[in-house]
Structure formats: structure tokens, C-alpha cells
Amino acid sequence: MNDIVNSLRRTPYQTFAALSVLFFTLLLSGLLFISLAFLQGLLNYVETRPRVIVYFQVKAEDEQIQAVQKNIRNTNKTSEIKYVSKEEAFEIYKEFTENDPLLLEMTSAEILPASLEIDATKPEYLPELAEMLKNQPGVDEVQFQKDIIDNLLKLTSKVRKTTAIFFSYLMFMSIIVLTTTLSFKIALKREEIGILKLLGATNMYIRKPFIGESIFLGALATAFANIILIGTLISMNTFLQGYFAGIPNLTISLAGMPLQVWPFNLTFAIATLTVTSIFSLCITLISSFSATNRYL
Amino acid sequence: MISFQNVTVRYPLGNIALDSISFDIEDGEFVYLVGPSGAGKTSILRLLLNDIHLSEGSITVDNFEITTQKFKKATELRQKIGIVFQDFKILPESNIYENIALSMLVKGFDKSRIAKEIDDALRLTDIEDKKYLFPAQLSAGELQRVAIARAVVGDRSIILADEPTGNLDPKMTWEVMKIFKQLEKKKTIIFATHNTDIVNSMKRRVIVIKKGKLIKDKKKGGYEL
């Protein structure tokens, strides 16, 4: 460890350049991983709750609503039907507009529609139920999650592609900078390497200090990046609580294991640390091997 | 045992460094390799280290056989050989102990064995009091002793010395030669030099190389070209 620290101190500018590039790469990689995890978690959440919401016309009679509720229940494709009256809708609206009294003043329970929140037993029943509801008397609008899922899928796919391009670019840049820095150091030790080779040192023996040095830099950059990432998530906790209100948790599957993304927890922090550490290890190993290869 | 059989080294531009050279060296033998500058002495030493490749023939070093084919056991071969250069090749940023330890660290010896062998080697070369000094604090003669100490530690049975007295004054030269005398019989020593006095005083086997050819191979010879 002392040898590594001494070697880094002897070349402070190269060390700073390599550390900065690694830090920004890992910070951005971590941010992209967290964004993807939240998006995927949201998609999973929506997909596991097959729901149709039907809004009735303001003038729709209670009898009409009850008839629709009965017809839908008779299909035996629903698990739960929740009636939200105009008054309940107004209460929900009041909660949403509590910081904007002007909006609340302009609205009353009378102008808000009653609605039914219908949970299907299977997601594939949703289009059929939606089609049936559209043709019922008194129905104004039918919303079902296909649109939401489609939009989320499109967004997730775009984010994945962008992430892949960013990951590749960042990795490439980091490898180039780290390889150049290490090559400079190796060039300074060319004579020492020559002596070691004549003494019978294996290539791995010669590589070891350079690999150790780059892994040390990678570990340092990973630690800094994760402190920033976790700090940001903790500071955004209140905002996210409001944003994900009503969603008890978001879960994704990582390497075949379920991982809870939201509410923010220690396991997710460890997963982020693991992902950035693996990324850092890949960069540092590729760089140190390609830099030393030139001289062995 | 070291055996050269019809060894030729031809450089890419066609000039010949060694021309069909053959000789055998027994274990524990002390052999002078003499000849004018550019005769091919260093090429023979570099061949033994697999630092250059031969164009024809074959070399046997104990159970290693080097041919014109790619030799894959260079690391293992080099671990049997200690080297002493004219320009010492001592690492300036490491102290004397660390420089000598390198020779054993590359072979994976444990710390206690390294410490013991280094102490013995420092005693042999009479630089025990310089153990923790840095190369810049030592004279040329002392640096060459460090190089010899590095060559003898770590179970290295062969010592290749390439003009080891070339940078030393006469007094230091004889002090270094005394160390080599002590190593006789324990190690196989190939000593490349063009110092007439040294060769004539010790009366050991002399192999004379001139223009890449083996001219003479005398059991108890002197320096004659």
C-alpha cells in the first residue's frame, strides 16, 4: 500500500487526471443505473396492477353507474371495483391543490366526475373491459394502463439505449486516460522492468504494482462517486416521497434477485456500490493490462 | 550443464553475430569468455538469458533446450541465472537490501529466507554495513559487489558476468575477483572480459571468440587472441 501511495504522490498531475475521469465516469454510471432502476421499478409496478378507470359524465345518474358496475362484475374478469363518488373526487382534488387555494375556489364537487377503479384479474383482460365500458351509457372516458405501460416501455427503452451509448463512451474515455497515465509511469520504469525480466520475473509480477495502483485509484473514485450518489438520494427523499405518493414500493430484478428500489434502502445503496465497483474494476483492469502489454 | 551446439545468430540485416559455435560447460566450472569488442561475447550471454534468439543450432541449459523455435520457459530459465553487468544495473530508488531482495522476490521466496540469504551475500561481498544505504551513497566497486550479491542469492546456479570489472579501478577489480574466486565450484560462472591481467592471473578455462567464431578453447589458458 505504501508503494502505491508513494508512486501516486510522485506523479500528482497524472494521478489527479486519472482520478477525476474515473470519478465522473462512475458518478454518471451510478446516476444512469439509479434512473434505470427507478424507471424499471415503475414499469414493474404498473404492469402488476392491471387497472381500468372509467370516468362518468357529470350528469350521469347513480342508477347508470350501478348498472355499469353490475355489468362489469358479471364478466367475472375483475378482482375489485372501487366507486369514487363526486364528493370523494373533490376530497382528492382538495389534497392535490392544498397549496393553490385559487384553483380550489374555482372547483366544486358538482363539476367533478364520479369514477370506477376496476382491477382486472389478468392484464390481458384490460382491452376487452375497456372496450365494453366505452359502450356503456353515461360513460365519459375510459383510461387503462396500456397507454401508460406503452409510454413507460418507450421511455425505458430510450433510457437503456442512451445508457448503453454513454456507458461505452465513458468506459472508452476512462480506459484511454488511465492507459495513457499508466504508460507514462511504465515508461519511467522501463529500465527497472528490463532488470526484472532478466532476473526472471513473470509478467504478472511486473504487472502487479501497476494493476494495484489503478485498482486503488478506481476504489477511491468509486467511494467518492457513491458518497455523492447516496447523499443526493437521501437529500431527494422528501421530494421523491411526494412524487411516488400512493406507491408503496418499487422493485426490480437484479441478477435474478428482487431488489427494492423505493423506498430508498441500504440494500439498494449496496447494489449501486456493487455495480459501480464492478464497472470501476473492469476499467482499471483493462487499462492496466493494455498499458503493461506494450512493455512485456 | 551448458551446451552450445552449432549456434549461429544472424541479425535481420544479414550480419552474423555468432557463427556455428559449439562448446560444453560443466556444472561448477569457471570459464572466461574473451575476445575484442563486438566479437560476440555478450551475444553468448544474451542467448543464455533468452534475450536474443538463435538462428541455427541449439543450446541446452540443464533441462532447458533452446532451439530456433519459440522458447516458452524463458522466465524459469532466467530464474536459474544470476547476472552481473558492467554498468551494475542497480535500481537507484531502492536501497541495497531491496535491490538484492528483488532477485528472490521474483522467485517467490518468503521474507525470512530472503533476509537470511541477503545477510550471507552481504557478508560474502563485504558490504554488510551498506545494507540500508541507497546506490547514490556507494562507490563503483561497492555497487558491483551489490550486483554480485544480487546474482548469488535465490538458488541461482549459473552466474553470467558481462565485463564486470570494466568500470572499476585495478584495486577494486581485484577485490571483485576475490569474490568470484570464493564462488568457484559452488556456481557455474561465465565471465566475459577483455582484461588480460585477470585472465592470465587465474589460469582458468578460456574460450576465445573473434568475429563471431570460436577461435580457442583452452582448459587452463591465458589471454591470447
UniProtKB/TrEMBL annotation, chain A:
<keyword id="KW-0472">Membrane</keyword>
<dbReference type="InterPro" id="IPR003838">
    <property type="entry name" value="ABC3_permease_C"/>
</dbReference>
<feature type="domain" description="ABC3 transporter permease C-terminal">
    <location>
        <begin position="165"/>
        <end position="295"/>
    </location>
</feature>
<protein>
    <recommendedName>
        <fullName>Cell division protein FtsX</fullName>
    </recommendedName>
</protein>
<keyword id="KW-0812">Transmembrane</keyword>
<dbReference type="GO" id="GO:0051301">
    <property type="term" value="P:cell division"/>
</dbReference>
<dbReference type="InterPro" id="IPR004513">
    <property type="entry name" value="FtsX"/>
</dbReference>
<dbReference type="GO" id="GO:0005886">
    <property type="term" value="C:plasma membrane"/>
</dbReference>
<feature type="domain" description="FtsX extracellular">
    <location>
        <begin position="52"/>
        <end position="142"/>
    </location>
</feature>
<comment type="similarity">
    <text>Belongs to the ABC-4 integral membrane protein family. FtsX subfamily.</text>
</comment>
<keyword id="KW-0131">Cell cycle</keyword>
<feature type="transmembrane region" description="Helical">
    <location>
        <begin position="164"/>
        <end position="188"/>
    </location>
</feature>
<feature type="transmembrane region" description="Helical">
    <location>
        <begin position="215"/>
        <end position="236"/>
    </location>
</feature>
<feature type="transmembrane region" description="Helical">
    <location>
        <begin position="268"/>
        <end position="291"/>
    </location>
</feature>
<keyword id="KW-1133">Transmembrane helix</keyword>
<feature type="transmembrane region" description="Helical">
    <location>
        <begin position="16"/>
        <end position="39"/>
    </location>
</feature>
<dbReference type="Pfam" id="PF02687">
    <property type="entry name" value="FtsX"/>
</dbReference>
<keyword id="KW-0132">Cell division</keyword>
<dbReference type="InterPro" id="IPR040690">
    <property type="entry name" value="FtsX_ECD"/>
</dbReference>
<dbReference type="Pfam" id="PF18075">
    <property type="entry name" value="FtsX_ECD"/>
</dbReference>
<keyword id="KW-1003">Cell membrane</keyword>
TrEMBL record, chain B:
<keyword id="KW-0131">Cell cycle</keyword>
<dbReference type="GO" id="GO:0016887">
    <property type="term" value="F:ATP hydrolysis activity"/>
</dbReference>
<keyword id="KW-0067">ATP-binding</keyword>
<dbReference type="Pfam" id="PF00005">
    <property type="entry name" value="ABC_tran"/>
</dbReference>
<comment type="similarity">
    <text>Belongs to the ABC transporter superfamily.</text>
</comment>
<dbReference type="InterPro" id="IPR003593">
    <property type="entry name" value="AAA+_ATPase"/>
</dbReference>
<dbReference type="InterPro" id="IPR015854">
    <property type="entry name" value="ABC_transpr_LolD-like"/>
</dbReference>
<dbReference type="InterPro" id="IPR017871">
    <property type="entry name" value="ABC_transporter-like_CS"/>
</dbReference>
<dbReference type="GO" id="GO:0005524">
    <property type="term" value="F:ATP binding"/>
</dbReference>
<dbReference type="GO" id="GO:0005886">
    <property type="term" value="C:plasma membrane"/>
</dbReference>
<dbReference type="InterPro" id="IPR003439">
    <property type="entry name" value="ABC_transporter-like_ATP-bd"/>
</dbReference>
<dbReference type="InterPro" id="IPR027417">
    <property type="entry name" value="P-loop_NTPase"/>
</dbReference>
<feature type="domain" description="ABC transporter">
    <location>
        <begin position="2"/>
        <end position="225"/>
    </location>
</feature>
<dbReference type="GO" id="GO:0051301">
    <property type="term" value="P:cell division"/>
</dbReference>
<keyword id="KW-0547">Nucleotide-binding</keyword>
<dbReference type="GO" id="GO:0022857">
    <property type="term" value="F:transmembrane transporter activity"/>
</dbReference>
<protein>
    <submittedName>
        <fullName>Cell division ATP-binding protein FtsE</fullName>
    </submittedName>
</protein>
<keyword id="KW-0132">Cell division</keyword>
